[in-house]
């Protein structure tokens, strides 16, 4: 990912927030036939305060990705969307795409069955928690034999990244009034190609910039 110092993300707390808010990721590895990609949900490791993630893949994706043997790239895609040049007023401008993305690279550790089972349980609890009547992995009619068979069909992993590339391109190079206009258009649904969370992400980034400017003035 081409980096620009103005758009770089380095704050670990912010990176953790983006990962936690966007758990559906792309796993990119190198297989016998070349590059391969799979898509799974991940979680931040509950026992760590860094960028370590845990997750699982279904068999035989572990072999295809070389899980535990070769470097894995995890692409976390945050809110993103198309920005029309018409939103800049009369200034010369071209279309662009605002986005937040985090890339985590490293060789993952393969989890033992019992730890993999705990991770699977956490995943289910995380995504069921928003339902009025959440159903856990162990909830009837699921029984222990069923859950154990499910675990054996997956391979759990833990990835502590040895390289992190993160970018938050949210019109930081634009004036405050233009940024406010873009946020207004985004939140009004002026483009069909916009994640509805993009406006809030832009507000967060620009409030941080404005606070930094006030502190230095």
Automatic annotation (TrEMBL):
Gene3D superfamilies: Electron Transport, Fmn-binding Protein, Chain A (2.30.110.10)
InterPro entries: Split_barrel_FMN-bd (IPR012349), TR_PAI2-type (IPR007396)
Pfam family, one: FMN_bind_2
UniProt name for this protein: FMN-binding negative transcriptional regulator
């Amino acid at each position: 990912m081409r980096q620009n110092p103005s758009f770089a993300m380095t704050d670990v707390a912010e990176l953790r927030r983006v990962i936690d808010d966007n758990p559906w990721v792309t796993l990119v590895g190198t297989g016998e036939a070349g590059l391969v990609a799979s898509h799974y949900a991940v979680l931040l490791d509950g026992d760590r305060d860094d960028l370590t993630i845990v997750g699982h893949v279904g068999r035989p994706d572990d072999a295809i990705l070389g899980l535990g043997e070769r470097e894995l790239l995890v692409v976390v895609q945050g809110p993103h969307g198309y920005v029309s040049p018409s939103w800049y007023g009369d200034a010369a401008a071209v279309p662009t795409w605002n986005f937040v993305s985090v890339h985590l690279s490293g060789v993952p550790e393969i989890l033992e069955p019992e730890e993999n089972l705990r991770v699977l349980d956490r995943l289910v609890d995380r995504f069921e928690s928003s339902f009025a009547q959440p159903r856990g992995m162990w909830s009837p009619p699921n029984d222990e034999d069923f859950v154990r068979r499910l675990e054996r069909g997956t391979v759990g992993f833990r990835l502590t990244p040895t390289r992190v590339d993160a970018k938050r391109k949210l019109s930081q190079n634009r004036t405050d009034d233009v940024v406010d206009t873009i946020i207004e258009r985004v939140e009004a649904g002026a483009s069909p190609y916009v994640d509805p969370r993009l406006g809030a992400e832009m507000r967060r980034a620009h409030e941080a910039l404005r606070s930094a400017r006030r502190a230095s003035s």
